[in-house]
């Protein structure tokens, strides 16, 4: 587990952009099952989260369409919440960072770590925007 003092600035990058931090399994399950679309970002301390994932997630919200609900959980810190999110992302294996778009509780789009690592934030944002245009 990482200390809160270390992860709080990384959490803030997303919460300042409108994401809601969730800490419990029940909160995650309820958010994912909410009506409409929900983007879930599994945040991480790794460099690809800082350089690619968080900036890409934020840039993806600059378009016309976007998810109704934006949530985030932090790998290595929010164990129960992360486990619940990963359960909903099945059959995809656990990875962090990762991003998943749900529509009315159904997984409709997934970006695993290997889709994020080494890719520019702009490409990640465009990938998400394409999913928003299709599902939001």
UniProtKB/TrEMBL annotation:
Gene3D superfamilies according to UniProt: Glutaredoxin
One Pfam family recorded for the sequence: Disulph_isomer
Annotated InterPro entries: BrxB/BrxA (IPR009474)
Top-level taxon of the source organism: Bacteria
Coiled coil regions in record: none
Protein family: Belongs to the bacilliredoxin family.
Listed NCBIfam families: YphP_YqiW (TIGR04191)
This protein's name: BrxA/BrxB family bacilliredoxin
Species assigned in the record: Flavobacterium celericrescens
């Amino acid at each position: 587990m990482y200390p809160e003092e270390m992860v709080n600035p990384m959490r803030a990058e997303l919460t300042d952009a409108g994401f809601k931090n969730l800490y419990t399994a029940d909160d995650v399950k309820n958010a994912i099952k909410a009506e409409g679309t929900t983007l879930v970002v599994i945040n991480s301390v790794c460099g690809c989260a800082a350089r690619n994932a968080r900036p890409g997630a934020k840039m993806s919200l600059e378009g016309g369409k976007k998810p109704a609900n934006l949530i985030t959980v932090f790998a290595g810190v929010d164990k129960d919440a992360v486990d619940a999110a990963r359960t909903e992302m099945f059959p995809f294996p656990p990875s962090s960072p990762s991003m998943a778009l749900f529509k009315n509780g159904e997984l409709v789009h997934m970006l695993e770590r290997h889709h994020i690592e080494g890719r520019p934030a702009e490409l990640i944002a465009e990938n998400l925007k394409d999913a928003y245009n299709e599902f939001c």
